[in-house]
Amino acid sequence: RNTNHTIPHLGTMAVIDQLDEALGGVAAGSVWKQLGLCLGCDMALQWVLAVFAIALQTEKFYDLAGASTHVLLSIITLKSFSFGADEGRGAMLTAMVMVWGLRLSSFLFMRVIKDGKDRRFNVARHSPPLFFAFWTIQGLWIIIGATPVLLVNLLPSQTPFGAPTDIVGAAMWVVGFLFEYVADAQKTEFKAKEENHKRFITTGLWSWSRHPNYFGEILLWCGIFVGSLGTISASTQWLLLGAASPAFTIFLLTSLSGIPLLEAAAKKRWGDDPAYQAYKKATSVLIPMPPKKAKAN
After folding, report:
1. DSSP assignments along 142-179, one per residue
2. What confidence tens digit (pLDDT) does each residue in 199-216 have?
3. pLDDT, tens digit, 9 for 90 and up, residues 221-247
């Protein structure tokens, strides 16, 4: 082993070196170091952008930065864009992240440019500490969410590409991506009509779920995790680390920011509207289901 580990280090690398020693393996330690570098690049980028966002009091490039950083980390850790037995899994998952990131970042960026602001930041954009916290949380979301792809790109494959988990994961991602894309398109088209500016959408996928775009987001990240199992399932530590990605996405969208904020905003806007009350009662909050039929009096 490298005797440099006996020399005191400072900061992040010291923690990673200690993990290396504790894990007792050069390969494992090397992966931890590379994950640490990814974390450092991720947080440094978010914090630099946060300084500009705070100075300009704008959130217009917040979501663009988040999805783009996901794509960047996936690309820089990829060994090869070959779809062979050894590199195919990493290439597939990286391509998934690229398609997801480019689609979502461009959609959210164009939306905030059109709307002029993002309601989530009405308070934060005028509070530097709170705004900085938003950027820090985004950095954590990026590294946690990207972990399955990063691990596949950094670790040797345990099973050849084309395993059942690759196929199931890819299918889940496709369905999730289409759900998110179609839901966003339907809502954009609905809001574009002048007569709908003060109304809520109840058609298309939105008739089966009040948040079909979030269902798609969760499903596609679960698909990425399943697609990574051919590489990470051989080690409990990598399996648990990879599982944090869909778990954190579910927590973030269902308990922290996504659904709770939108449900509260909808209640404030349409809570006294009998039509909204009926829609809310009949429609699943997340998982798409046929709407419940109103009971006859």
Report:
1. HHHHHHHHHHHHHSPPSS-TT-HHHHHHHHHHHHHHHH
2. 999 999 999 999 999 999
3. 999 999 999 999 989 999 999 999 999
Of 147, 174, 176, 155, residue with least CA distance to 245 = 147
pLDDT band at 79; cut points 50, 70, 90: confident
pLDDT digits (tens, 9 = 90+) for 256-297: 888 998 999 899 999 889 999 999 999 999 999 999 886 655
Query: 101-107 long-range contacts, Cβ below 8 Å, gap at least 24?
Result: 101/67, 101/68, 101/70, 101/71, 102/67, 102/71, 103/177, 103/181, 104/63, 104/67, 104/180, 105/63, 105/64, 105/66, 105/67, 105/68, 106/64, 107/184
123 φ, ψ (degrees, to nearest 5): -90, -45
Give the C-alpha distances (Å, rounded to integers) separating 123 from 58, 84, 178.
12, 49, 33
Supply 195's token pair: 């007569």
Query: Would you say 153 and 90 are in contact if contact means Cβ atoms under 8 Å apart?
Result: yes
Query: What is the distance between the terminal CA atoms of the chain, rounded to a whole angstrom?
Result: 77
Six-digit token string for 45: 């980028």
pTM for the full predicted model = 0.85
Let me know if 111 is exposed, middle or buried by CB neighbors in 10 A (0-12, 13-18, 19+).
middle
Task: Give the span between the Cα atoms of 45 and 271, in whole angstroms.
Answer: 40
Say how far apart CA 280 and CA 277 lie, in whole Å. 5
Coil vs helix vs strand at 44: helix
CB 208 within 8 A of CB 286: no
* Contacts of residue 270, Cβ cutoff 8 Å, sequence gap at least 6: 200, 276
- The DSSP letter of residue 209 is B
Confidence of residue 47 (pLDDT cuts 50, 70, 90): very high
